[in-house]
Write a structure and sequence with these properties.
With about 300 residues, this protein is α/β, with parallel strands linked by helices. It has one domain (about 10-305): TIM Barrel (Alpha-Beta Barrel), CATH 3.20.20. Helices cover about 45% and strands about 15% of the residues. The strands form three sheets. Strands 3-4-5-6-9-10 form a six-stranded parallel beta sheet. The termini are far apart.
Length: about 300
């Protein structure tokens, strides 16, 4: 199969990345980061998560952040700010704050599901059905994440059929897109392709997205392997922010800068300005007091410094 001509990049750094930071990032910094990402051309930016601040203190300002983005004079046409809503309570709070798109998250691993959201995979799907039904009544689109699609920190390798089973039920439930997450970054091009082939047998490939962490340095290789099978949507995190609190040693999602550098090198349009992306990554990294984790960002910024 020929590689896609265009790829949609879903930026998850402001939520999936920052939620793992120990130091609380002020709402104003989050808002500025998201607006810089939009200025760089990203059209889908996951803004925040409507979860209990008891479990994720970093997202306690969720309503403030979302409201500011929706009302901002800098807001660009065509940019969406989906938010994570793990249950009906979170969904109701997100709607009250003005959410226009939401996301839910499940897992292909029973143990990970129990550790992460304190219920079985089957029970989680029942919870999600309630959210999807409520969203459907309000004509709010729902995106879904599936964690541990190739490996689990507790169970080891995960059978591709397990990921496919969950993905199919989320699609049937009404989710428009299923993001397949290699949560601990243990996937390789071979295991990722086996998983995608199993999922694509029950879910149209145009409804699938890749969400690959870079723990073992395989994220970019896994993206290319996914492109070969027709996947044209990928999640990424500015400056490589993130990790997984339930998977010791797991690094962040693939860096947005690395993904865009790859896509540009392949001649695949993604609508993102790499220079603007580098500036946004430098902005949040400076606030956090460290260099970007992105290899492309480090190389390009070093080259700029020599010029």
């Amino acid at each position: 199969m020929a590689l896609p001509n265009r790829v949609k990049v879903v930026e998850v750094g402001p939520r999936d990345g920052l939620q793992n930071e120990q130091q609380i990032v002020p709402a104003a910094i989050k808002i500025e980061l998201i607006e810089r990402l939009a200025d760089a051309g990203l059209s889908v930016i996951e803004a925040t998560s409507f979860v209990s601040p008891k479990w994720v203190p970093q997202m306690a300002d969720n309503a403030e952040v979302l409201a500011a983005l929706l009302a901002s004079p800098r807001r660009r046409a065509g940019v969406s700010y989906p938010v994570l809503t793990p249950n009906l309570k979170g969904f109701d709070a997100a709607v009250e704050a003005g959410a226009q798109e939401v996301a839910i998250f499940g897992a292909a691993s029973e143990t990970f599901s129990q550790k992460n959201i304190n219920c079985s995979v089957a029970e989680s799907l029942k919870r999600f059905a309630a959210v999807v039904n409520a969203a459907g009544a309000l004509e709010i689109p729902v995106r879904a994440y599936v964690s541990c699609v190739v490996a689990c920190p507790y169970e080891g390798a995960v059978a591709p059929e397990k990921a496919a089973w969950v993905a199919q039920r989320l699609l049937d439930m009404g989710c428009y897109e299923i993001s397949l997450g290699d949560t601990i970054g243990a996937g390789t091009p071979a295991s990722i392709q086996r998983m995608i082939e199993a999922c694509a047998a029950v879910v149209p490939v145009e409804n699938l997205a890749g969400h690959y962490h870079d723990t073992y340095g395989m994220a970019i290789a896994n993206i290319y392997a996914s492109l070969e099978l027709g996947v044209a949507v990928f999640d990424s995190s500015i400056a490589g922010l993130g990790g997984c609190p339930y998977a010791i040693g797991a690094s962040g999602n693939v860096a947005s800068e690395d993904l865009v550098f790859l896509l540009q090198g392949l001649g695949i349009d993604c609508g993102v300005d790499l220079a603007g992306l580098l500036a946004a990554g430098r902005f949040i990294s400076a606030h956090l007091g460290r260099a970007p984790a992105s290899k492309a960002a480090r190389a390009l910024l070093a080259r700029q410094g020599r010029q």
